[in-house]
Write a structure and sequence with these properties.
The chain is of the alpha+beta class. It folds into 2 domains: 234 residues, no CATH class; 93 residues, no CATH class. It contains 14 helices and 6 strands.
Length: 452
Amino acid sequence: MQFLWKYIDELVGKGLDWTVITELLLYASLGLVPMAMPLSVLLASLMTFGNLGEKNELFAMKAGGISLYRIMFPLLIFTILISIATFYFSNDILPYTNLKMRSLLYSINEKNPEVNIQSGIFNEPVENFSIKADKKTRNSNVLENILIYDNRNSSGNSSVVTAKHGTIKITEDKAFIILDLYDGYSYEEIKSQNTPDTKPHQKLKFEHQTVYVELDGLELERGNEDFFRNNYNMINNSQILYAVDSLKKRLNDREYENWKNLVTYSIFKGIPRNPELTKKTQKIQKDFSYDLDSIYNNLDRSQKNKVLESALNYGRSAQRNIEITMDELTSSKRWIARHEIEWHRKYTLSLACLLFYLIGAPLGAIIRKGGFGLPVIVSVVIFLFYYIISMTFENTIRELVISADLGMWMSTYILIPLAIFLTFKATNDSMRISSHFYQSIAKFFKRKTKTT
């Protein structure tokens, strides 16, 4: 639903076939799988162990000498397999679906709207061609009181057509609109080279006239996928590493180029370029072996003013160059950070499946409530906590505040101690929540009645 509301403006009125909409929704649904898997594992583990605890089956197994670790072990192996499958999906399948969805959305966005004449308003099926009908018969193509402005071949409203009634239809290949007009007039301006200031026109009356309007883009043309293939969320992790290496090399080259231009044309702009003085110039640039203050003090007032004015001009020029290139370099660093975020995301979401199982299983054994009631609430609260932390640190990475190596794993660092704590408490039965706990919560939220 979020996807539909986001792209509803691009989908409505395009005359798309239901198969195209279904394909687009399928790609969008597959994109939610990596994020939905951790929540699904958390909810499933809470419900499973909550049901076992509610029916005293955990108590019976523990009484038979089976520890909680041994009870959790088979599902732990299964969760590890789920984590591996999630990583495989995120790394190999999801980039393909993202590529298909992005190219399909681009094709839909480039597609012209379907011709749909509405009564009482001007409609523009093609550029520079407007048509208005006071009335359109429902479930038919009959139009009444038609007004057409045709400006496809010249400037201004050079051709105006009116008709009392007519019909409109589109050819089967959707290449042309055919307008059959009856009982009307055609007004057309005549350009005169001899008298450019005057604008003569001719008026023609007709009983029947057929107008052909060529259409472009009503059929959905699939875009070229190569245009989007190198995007960070459409490549796997090995390709991301290669892209990051290339982007960093390009960034370093750009930074060196800016530094070289700054040093050559601003700081040492006045140094002569004679090849015979190359060694001396390099020595000056390396250690500043000469005394600048003594040279400046030996100048007269006018020479000092010229030196100061030149220095200020060089400084202002350098500042402008730095400001211009700073945004470019920052944008490149943020683009690299987007690649690094996507690389780490595939690992963190896969590992989150395992961590949520290690949280949900002992927590279900503690709360001892199954079904879709309390486990759903607890799952949503824990997952929102995890999601808020992840998005907060991801935004800090995008703003280049911290590195992706730290920020993308911060939510995992927080979940690990929680998983260890809950597993230890559930194993030792040192943290129980009895039925009185739920009764006290229900009593707290229960509306108080007035006593007389």
